[in-house]
Amino acid sequence: MKLNLPNKLTLIRICMIPFFMIFLTVPLPISDNACLICAAALFIAASLTDMADGKIARARGLITDFGKFMDPLADKFLVFGAMLGILVFFDEIRYVFVWAAAVVVFRELAVTSMRLVIAGKDGLVIAASMLGKIKTTTQIVCICTVLLEPVLFGWSDFFVKYKPLTWVTTAAMVVMTLWSGIDYIKTYWKYIDPEK
């Protein structure tokens, strides 16, 4: 199978996910901070490939069915993998963060299911909305913050105890995830016919 550059970037992003998760889920002979820095570096690199593959595909006319299928799937794998890794690594935030992760997973599954149903209706395509793009940005910022706040502010008892940046960005992610999901459902619910 011959792949163009955007599709190669998408596959690279998928391949990076297990390596990213290893630093958060497997006991390694390095410090916790080193694990978090490596995980954050891989996550940021993977997120950058997400931005790059879309821009390259549009600019060069390289949009393919493979890319349409794999690119959004890779995005979801990346975010889901990151959240699972965070739940394993961080005992102290697990019991709250698991609810934020559940909101993200449920929203993504609901919108993806809606896209699949609507895709067969007269060629209708659900385009990425501005709210959806903001949602994705807040997810990336939240994950990076959770990973890097202990590294950057480990010297501060206040940050270690209360994790203010983690909770603020988690709240923003949950709000935007819910908002964008509700907006998608309200906009396209008319295409979901319970009698067909």
Q: List low-confidence stretches.
A: none
- The radius of gyration computed from the alpha-carbon positions, rounded to a whole number of angstroms, is 18 Å
Count of beta strands: 0
Mean pLDDT: 89
> Which structural class should the secondary elements be placed in?
mainly alpha
Question: What is the makeup of the main sheet?
Answer: none
Give the helices and strands as they follow along the chain.
HHHHHHH
Q: How many helical elements?
A: 7
- Overall form: globular
How far apart are the first and last residues' alpha carbons, in Å? 37 Å
Helix content: over 70%
Q: How large a portion of the residues is in β-strands, by DSSP E?
A: under 5%
Please specify the SSE layout and strand pairing:
Elements: H1 5-25, H2 32-60, H3 65-89, H4 94-119, H5 130-152, H6 157-162, H7 164-188
Helix pairs in contact: 1-2, 1-3, 2-3, 2-5, 3-4, 3-5, 4-7, 5-7
Structure characterization notes:
It is a single chain. With about 200 residues, the protein is mainly α. About 80% of the residues lie in helices and about 0% in strands. It is built from seven helices and no strands. It has helices at about 5-25, 30-60, 65-90, 95-120, 130-150, 155-160, 165-190.
Describe this structure in a few short sentences.
The protein has 196 residues and is mainly alpha-helical. The protein is 79% helix and 0% strand. It has helices spanning 5-25, 32-60, 65-89, 94-119, 130-152, 157-162, 164-188.
